[in-house]
Amino acid sequence: MSNRSNTPNDKSRTVQDIISEIEQKSQGGGYIYRGERKCNPRVSSKLYRDFEIEVEHFNIELVQKEMLAAAKRHTGDLPHDYRVDVTLSPEEESIDFEILTEIQHYGGKTNLIDFTTDFFIALFFACDGRYDEDGRVILQKTDEINDMIAHPQNPRHRVIAQKSVFIRPPRGFIEPHEDDIVTIPASLKKQILEHLRDYHGISTEVIYNDLYGFIRNQDFHGDAYTHFYRGFACGNRGDQETTVEAKQTEYENAITHFTEAIRLKPDLTSAYFNRGVTLAFRGEFDDAIKDFDMVIQLQPEHVGAYYNRGNTYVDKDEFDNAIKDFNKAIELDTYYLNAYYNRGFASLNKGDFDDAIKDFDMVIQLQPDSAEAYYNRGEAWLHLQEWEKAKSDLITAKDMGMDIIASFNNEYASVEDFEQETGFQLPEDIAELLTPPQP
C-alpha cells in the first residue's frame, strides 16, 4: 500500500491545498478520519504493532480477551484462576468494550484504532510532532467497515473533544484505498497547526483536555517539555541570584531553553509566556511583547499574558496600551489585585488621577495593609491638591513602615522639583513630610 497521496510536487503545496484535497476526497460523505504523524506501514492497532501479532500468527481478538481478563484480575473483578470465555453475552461484550476504551484512553494496548468524525482533528494529529517526517490523513468509508466500527457509550472528555470513533479490526489492521490517503509534507506541519488553532480552535489544550491527555501529550513531546522545564529552572535561579551578572546569565540560559522548546513544539503556550517574562526582566521589552502576543493568540483568555504585557508597556511608558491590557486582565479576573495596582500606577503616570485613586481604593479594599497603595493614592491626592486626604494617606504609608521620602525622591529630585513640575506649592506640613531631615 502506498503512503503517498496522488498530488505531485509536495514542496509547492500550501495549507489550503491540503485542506482542499481532503474536502474533495470526502465528497459524498460517509467518511471517518485518522491522522498519523508519520507514514506507518499499516493502519493498525497498538496491540498489533507492539506484539507483532501477524509475525507470530496470533488470533488478535483472543489475545485481547486474555489481556482484558488480566486487567480484570489485576483490579480484583475476576478470580486469579479465571479462564478466558470466548463466548460472551451482548451485555458482557458491551461492558468489556467500555473497559477497552478506558485502557485505550490511558494509552494501553488494545485492538482498537482511533478515528474521528472531524477531518480537522485528524489533520491536527497528522501534524502534531515529528516535524522532520511526513505525516498522513487516512480517509475511511464507513460503509466498507460497518461491522468493525464501535462507539463508546460513556465517552470521557478527551474522547468527546476528539469526536472519537473506534475501529476494531479482526486482523489488527485495515487497508484503506491508496486514493484515500493524503500525505502531509513535513514542511507544512507547523503552518497547518497554526491554521487549525487560528481558524478552527483546534490546539493541544483542546485536544488533550484532561489529565491523562496532558500526560500523553508530554510523552509525545518529551524533548520540548524537557527544555521548557530546564528553562523554568534557569529562570527561577536567575530570580534568586544577587548580582546582575549572575541574573543575566541564568536568564539567557532560560531563554535558550524556552526557544528550543518552542522550536520543538510551536504551540507550547507556557514556553512563550515564560520566555516573555524572562525577556522583560532583561529589558528586551519589544521581544517580550511579541511573546505575550503569541500567548494571547494561542489562549485568548490567558490573564497572565495580558497582565505581563501591560507591565511591559508600563516599562516602555506606553500607558494607554498598558491600561487596555490591565482592563482585560481585570475583566478576566475581577479580584486581580496586582492588575488594579498597576493600572492605578499607569493612570497616575498618565495624569488620570481620579482613575488612579479608584484603583488604589480597590487595592486597599482587597489588601488593607498595602503601604504602596496608600502612598500612591496620596501622591494622586497631591496632584489634585486634596491636601488633607494626601497627608492622611502619606502618614498611613509611613506608619506602615514605608520610606515615603525615598519613594518620592525616586520620581522627583525634591519638593521644589515637584512644585516646579506641577505649578503649585505644597503646604508646609506636607513638604516637611516629604523632605529628608537635615544633617
Total number of beta strands: 8
Average pLDDT rating: 86
Judging from the principal axes of the Cα atoms, what is the shape? elongated
Amount of beta strand: 5-15%
Q: Distance between the terminal alpha carbons, to the nearest Å?
A: 92 Å
Total of helices: 23
Q: Classify the helix fraction into a percent range.
A: 55-70%
* Whole-angstrom Rg: 31 Å
Biggest pleated sheet = 3 strands, antiparallel
Uncertain stretches of 5 or more adjacent residues:
1-9
* Structural class computed from helices and strand pairing: mainly alpha
Number of domains: 2
How do the strands of the widest beta sheet line up side by side? 1-4-8
Please, could you describe this protein's structure?
This protein has 23 helices and 8 strands. Helices cover 60% and strands 7% of the residues. The protein has a 3-stranded antiparallel beta sheet. By secondary structure, the protein is mostly helical. 37% of the residues are buried.
Brief description of this entry?
By secondary structure, the protein is mainly alpha-helical.
Features:
439 residues; mainly alpha; Serine Threonine Protein Phosphatase 5, Tetratricopeptide repeat; 2 domains; 3-stranded antiparallel β-sheet; disordered N terminus
Layout of secondary structure:
Blueprint: H1 15-25, E1 31-36, E2 43-44, H2 46-51, H3 53-56, H4 60-75, H5 90-105, E3 113-116, H6 119-127, E4 135-141, E5 149-150, H7 157-161, E6 164-167, E7 173-174, E8 181-184, H8 189-200, H9 204-207, H10 211-220, H11 222-240, H12 244-264, H13 269-281, H14 285-298, H15 303-315, H16 319-332, H17 337-350, H18 353-366, H19 371-383, H20 387-399, H21 404-411, H22 415-422, H23 428-433
Antiparallel strand pairs: 1-4, 2-7, 3-6, 4-8, 5-6
